[in-house]
Amino acid sequence: MASTLLRGRWVISDPAQLPDGGIVDNGAVAIEDDTITEVGGYETLKARFPDAKEIGSNAHIVIPGLVNAHDHGRGIQAHRLGMADDYLEPWLLDFWRAHPLDTHLDTLYCAIQQLKAGITTVVHSGYWRDWSKPEQEAADALEAYDEVGIRLSFAPLAIDQNTFVYQDDETFLESLPDEIANNIRGALEGMNPPPGYDWAEHTCALIEKYANHPRIQILFGPTGPEWCSRPLLEKSARLAKEMGVGIHAHCLESPIQRDFFQRTYGQCGVAYLRDCGLLGPKTALAHCTWFGEEDIAICAETGTSVCHNASSNLRLRNGIAPVARMLELGVNVGIGMDSFSLNSDDDMLREMRLVENIHHMPKGGVAYEPCPSGADVFRMATLGGAKASTFDAEIGALLTGRQADAVLIDYEALSKPYLDPRVTPHDAILRLANASHVDTVMVAGELLVVGGVYQRQDEAAIARRLAELAEQEPAEHLKRFFEAVGPARPYVAAFFEKNYGRSDVAPYYTVNSSR
């Protein structure tokens, strides 16, 4: 049976077979409820299911829903809140004191923008806007994603050290002028989670609550090994294994983080995480910009995924992750936008184009070593992200038995004024498409975007309300915290300059060479 047929000039059904297969010319996808029942030629499926509702036309390309493999659910992104791009470590202090827009509304707006860009699954790495309300923040974000209808892997924040720099908090505060340090200590009293809050109990409770949800799953989210003690990391690994869920964490985003691990633990960052029991096929590590050979090899051996965040890595001056080498060694790689895309617009199609192009650089003087192809990038945005999300058996391809998460791209608009017929459909999307070419988006069989318009809620009303909130003063305890930590910023920058200012940043890629 099939109640719906998605039709296209092409159906990119299986990205694993690109570039030589996996595409059905004049194809269709038969769907019953939330499941794909058959994929094949349009004429054949039309004859088999004559009463099915038909969506799409010969002017569309049907593709699997895209997966944003690492994000923070920020609808109004950093630059729009007055936060200039900078080196990651001092920038984080700006991030902690960004205007805390209403979590529910901001996440609603973010999820809608992602759907309209062809994203049907997002991996949300939790960050608190208001540190004093971790459970409410998570509840508000989860409710928003559920209302929007997008598929979600949600990793609540777990953090217990090194808030300001890669050093014990009190040790750092003691290094500051007394007035600044005391103001921060006082402000933190109003920002700390409530007495008795336990990150592990909170995560376990969410796992149980959403255990039977068709579109939402909960992951453990130790935010990153710089900010998490070894006991926290080991407990995350143990509980994730016991409860059969995945893990999502940041890893080696900056050269300073790489050096921190070598100096602190005498080993590479991924080896340390392996020793904590954190790695495996249900673990995904975000950024991984400063992976060395050992880090990459360990990920390949353990089946650990990497979430590549090209825009964010460039904007926060962290460089380019060695994705070509990761793929060569068999690491699964997805693409994330980190709520920090190049244009601050959550346009996954533009992000895919950026990913392909930044990896076209020469590699260490070897002229023709492999680099990610267009087919590789398409796989990263679909199957790679699907595995990183741990929804991998259900999404990422348009195949019988998988979830009906699909996108119709307007090929007619994409190809104007002219497109040579020799250009393959996946290359046409990769080279030319952006969110404006997304016509229809389906998640679990439900049409959420039709004609480029989100169907469930009034997007414009949400945007207006967010803008109104951005004009308002924050709550008093937040305002006090922002004012207290602002004067510490130059001391944060000085700490990293003094301790890590001479980091060896010899790259995998040769951007410009004097040799």
Provide an overview of this structure:
There is one protein chain. With about 525 residues, the chain is an alpha/beta fold. It has two domains: about 5-65 and about 395-450, Urease, subunit C, domain 1 (Roll); about 65-390, Metal-dependent hydrolases (TIM Barrel, Alpha-Beta Barrel). It contains 20 helices and 17 strands. The protein has helices at about 40-50, 90-95, 105-115, 135-150, 170-175, 180-190, 200-210, 230-245, 255-265, 270-275, 295-300, 310-315, 325-330, 350-360, 375-390, 410-415, 425-430, 460-470, 475-485, 490-500, and strands spanning about 5-10, 25-30, 35-40, 55, 60-65, 65-70, 120-125, 150-155, 215-220, 245-250, 285, 305-310, 335, 405-410, 440-445, 445-450, 455. Strands 1, 2, 3, 4, 5, 14, 15, 16 and 17 form a nine-stranded mixed sheet that branches. The chain has a four-stranded parallel sheet with strand order 6-7-8-9, with helices on both faces. Strands 10-11-12-13 form a four-stranded parallel sheet. α4 (about 135-150) links the parallel β7 and β8 (about 150-155). α14 (about 350-360) packs across α15 and α14 (about 350-360) crosses α17 (about 425-430). The longest helix has 16 residues, at about 375-390. The mean pLDDT is about 95.
